[in-house]
Amino acid sequence: MAGTDEDAVAAADDALYVLTAVLLTPAKFPSVLGDDYPEACSALGLAPAADGYGLVLGQDGEGARWTVVTDDVSLVAVAIASWDCGMEYDLSPDERSVVAALPGWPLAVAVAAPGVPAPHDPDPEVAGCEPLSPPDTTGWGSAQRRLGADEIAVQWTLWREQVSDKEFVYPEDESEPAEGEDAGPERGVIRRILAEAHAYVDTPPPLGRVRSSFAPGAARTLRADGPGWSLVARTDDMAFLLLDEKPGEVLPVGRGPKLPALLEALDKLAVRPS
Description:
alpha+beta, 2 domains, 8 helices, Integral membrane protein
């Protein structure tokens, strides 16, 4: 077991009311926990296993919050897919697949189990370690920046419709400010971030820093993160950048002459869902 003792495992396993579950794998992990897969694992005190984990969040009979970590990733993936389709699925990891039972929740959960006390951290003597808690997203910072990038990736069409070609910044070519307009002070910042992203091509980053997922047609949705920045792009279109140093801002980046090649290179080294 990692991060807890046998008493904690027994307490979590005793009538755990499952509320939700998430995947923690190189290709799909809660980005609010970190810029890459190893960092997200570290937030839970877990070693970055090659096949990843499934996280089962629930309450015990006393209402205490527990996160059960299982290495049966496929079981958790099936449960999540079933719930997304509105189907019932009894998610009960086999004891032999349980890697750890961690007190608390690493993510915010808006629901609670019926018929038990309100969600609370388990007794310290039972927990055996400091309870997990969700990252602070009340103010702008790395966690909020990554959540913003998540939202853009999911709602790409909505965000794309809000940006006209006039607002694009073309950082690679000074001759391409949109329709003669000044690209503004963001140009240097965008160049720096894209240069950092391009460095991943020569020096592969930690696992999960660059991820590729499905998009309509033959395109892919790219997600890349780095120190203080997040990039969301479609391989057949443009990119959006979010930066810690620019609270709440979303910077659109047009394709220009070099962005397509960068996106293609990043897609080749990106981790993809199996």
